Fold this sequence. Notes:
Blueprint: E1 9-12, E2 15-18, H1 29-33, E3 36-38, E4 41-45, E5 50-53, H2 55-68, H3 77-90, E6 97-105, E7 120-128, E8 138-142, H4 163-175, E9 180-184, E10 190-192, E11 197-202, E12 205-208, H5 219-230, E13 235-237, H6 242-246, E14 250-255, E15 259-266, E16 269-270, H7 278-291, E17 302-304
Parallel strand pairs: 8-9, 8-15, 12-13
Antiparallel strand pairs: 1-2, 1-7, 3-6, 4-5, 4-6, 5-17, 6-7, 9-10, 11-12, 11-14, 14-15, 15-16
Helix pairs in contact: 2-3
Bound molecules: 4'-deoxy-4'-aminopyridoxal-5'-phosphate.
The site of 4'-deoxy-4'-aminopyridoxal-5'-phosphate (PMP) has 15 residues, from helix 5 and strand 14.
Amino acid sequence: MIKFEPCPTTWFDGKYMPLAKAHVPIITHAIHYGTSVFEGIRAYWNGDNLNVFRLEDHVARLFKSAQFYSMNVRHTQSEITKAIVGICAKNKLRKSCYIRPFCFVGNFGINLEITHRAPIHTAMYVFPAKRLYDTNGITVGVSSWRKFSDSSISHMAKAGGNYLNAIIATQEAHRNGYDEALMLDSRGLVSEAPGENVFIVRNGRLLTPTLASSPLEGLTRNCIMRIASESGIQTQEIDIARSELYVADEIFLTGTAAEITPVTSIDGKSIGAGSPGPITKSMMQAYNSVVMDKDGRYADWLTPVY
Ligand code: PMP
């Protein structure tokens, strides 16, 4: 688990304010119905500067998620982008951190029809964050809970309410002694982990489920697809059967919080010839170079704070 010590300065509806003053009333709609959208963003301290990773893409996804539910965010993307950089600077952060911007429905009674008139609040906080999982890898169990299907709720919008599905899968995985869950989609094909996308390596090819298996369209997933294909590894979005997990040469998870995390076993069965395998290792190294600003080809993914 990431150590959680939020920094004292937050941002709430356009103003920087102390964390202790950033409160909401109990009638807040989002508390009752999960009507919030959010992002998790990392900023990396590389000794010279703090660089926010894929800032504009995260803000764009936040607005797309809000738009999906007709939430009328009262700020522009550029205001939110500036506030994210601003909150890091205001807290004088000189270490790697995790930033959580979110938008939520405020006092809208018990009304289930969110319209453009619904009061949407936007806030963010930041906390110093190290690695989430061991670089040597984690154990994973296939969940008996399926990833919700696009025919019931959208996987394209990163909404608060979606995460109840992630929570029951995580509870089950931990109860069964695994570090993390992996969910199948409604058809029984591989979807994703509760907070990470999944990649498998088979015969030198890197495979990840298509969006039809209802994973979040992760930004780290996108990074790995680009980095891998630019380094000559064939990468494909494809349907993945559950059994392919057990015979995979390598498996890893990707996400802002989890970065690139090798999977050592699935349901107690070891993966490949010892984890992390060569492609996983090379993706971990490449990703680390990118976020630490050591690879000029991806410099446009970084926004300096200072
Ligand atoms: N899937 C889910 C359900 C997630 O919550 C996350 C984390 N945002 C991811 C995948 C990975 O997405 P990203 O790489 O954009 O952090």
